[in-house]
């Protein structure tokens, strides 16, 4: 396959900077205004349904926001989203798929010739 095009590396660098700033600002705000940030995160949790699960209390998931693990997870997802987009004449994304038999594979596994 070879290395991705130089444009992808620039996009990845831009996403890295965006996520780093997001996490840094979030961490500072969480330190300076913990109650307000907690309210905001809980309001987002209400919209997504996270806060409605009785076995998944906010004490379990709010502290994970803006952590190192959060940074790497968001970065990985955002980078994957960059690769899931194709441009006209470019390679198709190598998305994971599941065969009818239940076996997991990627689209590129079906490429021939």
Automatic annotation (TrEMBL):
UniProt main location, coarse: membrane
Keyword flag DNA damage: no
Q: What InterPro entries would the database entry show?
A: Iodothyronine_deiodinase
Residue runs in coiled coils: none
Q: Which UniProt keywords apply?
A: Oxidoreductase, Selenocysteine, Thyroid hormones biosynthesis
At the top level, the lineage of the source is Eukaryota
Gene Ontology molecular-function annotations: thyroxine 5'-deiodinase activity
Query: Known Pfam families for this protein?
Result: T4_deiodinase
What's any GO biological process attached to this entry? hormone biosynthetic process
GO CC terms of this entry: basolateral plasma membrane
- Per the record, what are the reactions this protein catalyses? 3,3'-diiodothyronamine + iodide + A + H(+) = 3,3',5'-triiodothyronamine + AH2; 3'-iodothyronamine + iodide + A + H(+) = 3',5'-diiodothyronamine + AH2; 3-iodothyronamine + iodide + A + H(+) = 3,3'-diiodothyronamine + AH2; 3,3'-diiodo-L-thyronine sulfate + iodide + A + H(+) = 3,3',5'-triiodo-L-thyronine sulfate + AH2
Subcellular location as annotated: Basolateral cell membrane
How does it sit in the bilayer?
Answer: Single-pass type III membrane protein
Keyword Nucleotide-binding listed? The answer is: no
PANTHER family on file = IODOTHYRONINE DEIODINASE (PTHR11781), TYPE I IODOTHYRONINE DEIODINASE (PTHR11781:SF22)
Function summary: Responsible for the deiodination of T4 (3,5,3',5'-tetraiodothyronine).
**Quaternary structure note:** Predominantly monomer. Can form homodimers but homodimerization is not essential for enzyme activity.
Family as reported in the entry's similarity comment: Belongs to the iodothyronine deiodinase family.
Q: What is this protein called?
A: Iodothyronine deiodinase
Organism encoding this protein: Microcebus murinus
Q: What is the primary gene name for this protein?
A: DIO1
